[in-house]
């Protein structure tokens, strides 16, 4: 995330006045329908890997699969920070964040440095493009790409890797996805998501928004960096409250 030490676990609420309703309708950060949670993330953000894993597992446990969907939005760290998401910083997070959710899948990068992903934009475009097929296809591709990077050490910057991962999901029409990637037609949507997140409107990766305007940034986790910032020091988790995901999903279900 751009603010990697963020303590933003409060789920904010708004009153139901007509003016606020109009404001919510005009807010590009909010999902278009009550059955959807907008999830701003980058694919190579460890905090987002934890969040997406918890969203899926909590939804399954609550029996909300097929009722509440995740609209995965791009929060491209490389654009916010104007540089590659540095491997030393990413590596420093793995043991700390991996200890919170080991089942999400983690492993230190084993390949040569020149095989490390330099960009996530093509993969973010693929996740968006899959929405034209279904929410399920997009969700499954997003989760599979995260696991491909974090647990399997695959270079998700590359077209053939993205398509191989899509094929492995069994949920994505790979031919249709390839056509969209090759045409570049998903890039404007990703850039629009980036624009909607700028100027502090989205605090970090991950940041979740409900249809009624409630939101939670880096849900349940309060972290800080010691001995230097990202890429030099390492994160310390001061608080972790995974139960907040049940609250978020229950609130989303209550909007249906």
Describe the fold and architecture.
- This is Dithiol-disulfide isomerase.
- The protein is of the alpha+beta class and 256 residues long.
- It has helices at residues 18-25, 46-62, 77-81, 87-100, 121-129, 135-150, 159-169, 174-183, 187-197, 244-254; strands at 36-41, 69-74, 207-209, 215-217, 221-226, 234-240.
- It has one domain (18-22, 35-254): Glutaredoxin (3-Layer(aba) Sandwich).
- Helix content is 44%, strand content 12%.
- A hairpin with a 5-residue loop joins strand 3 and strand 4.
- The chain starts with 17 loop residues before the first helix and ends with a helix.
- Mean pLDDT is 92; it is low at 2-14.
Keywords:
single chain; 256 residues; Glutaredoxin; disordered N terminus; globular
**For the record, what is the CATH homologous superfamily label?**
Glutaredoxin
- In N-to-C order, the SSE pattern is HEHEHHHHHHHEEEEH
- Stretches where pLDDT is under 50 for at least 5 consecutive residues are 2-14
Average pLDDT, all residues = 92
CATH topology: Glutaredoxin
* Fraction in helix: 40-55%
Q: Beta fraction of the residues? A: 5-15%
Shape: globular
Secondary-structure map with pairings?
Layout: H1 18-25, E1 36-41, H2 46-62, E2 69-74, H3 77-81, H4 87-100, H5 121-129, H6 135-150, H7 159-169, H8 174-183, H9 187-197, E3 207-209, E4 215-217, E5 221-226, E6 234-240, H10 244-254
Parallel strand pairs: 1-2
Antiparallel strand pairs: 1-3, 3-4, 5-6
């Amino acid at each position: 995330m751009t603010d990697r030490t963020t303590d933003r676990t409060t789920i904010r609420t708004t009153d139901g006045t007509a003016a606020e309703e109009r404001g919510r309708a005009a807010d590009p950060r909010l999902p278009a329908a009550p059955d959807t949670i907008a999830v701003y993330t980058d694919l190579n953000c460890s905090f987002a890997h934890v969040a997406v894993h918890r969203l899926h597992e909590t939804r399954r446990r609550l029996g909300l699969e097929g009722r509440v969907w995740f609209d995965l939005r791009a929060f491209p760290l490389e654009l916010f920070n104007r540089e590659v998401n540095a491997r030393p910083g990413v590596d420093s997070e793995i043991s700390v964040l991996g200890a919170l959710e080991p089942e999400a899948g983690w492993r230190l990068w084993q390949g040569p440095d020149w095989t490390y992903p330099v960009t996530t934009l093509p993969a973010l475009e693929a996740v968006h493009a899959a929405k034209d097929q279904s929410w399920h296809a997009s969700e499954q591709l997003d989760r599979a790409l995260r696991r491909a990077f974090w647990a399997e050490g695959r270079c998700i910057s590359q077209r053939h890797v993205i398509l191989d991962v899509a094929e492995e999901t069994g949920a994505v029409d790979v031919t249709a996805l390839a056509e969209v990637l090759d045409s570049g037609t998903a890039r404007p949507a990703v850039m629009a998501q980036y624009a909607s997140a700028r100027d502090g409107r989205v605090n970090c990766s991950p940041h979740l928004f409900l249809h009624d305007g409630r939101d939670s940034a880096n849900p349940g986790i309060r972290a800080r960096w010691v001995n230097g910032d990202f890429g030099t020091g390492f994160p310390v988790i001061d608080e972790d409250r995974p139960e907040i995901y049940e609250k978020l999903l229950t609130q989303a279900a209550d909007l249906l």
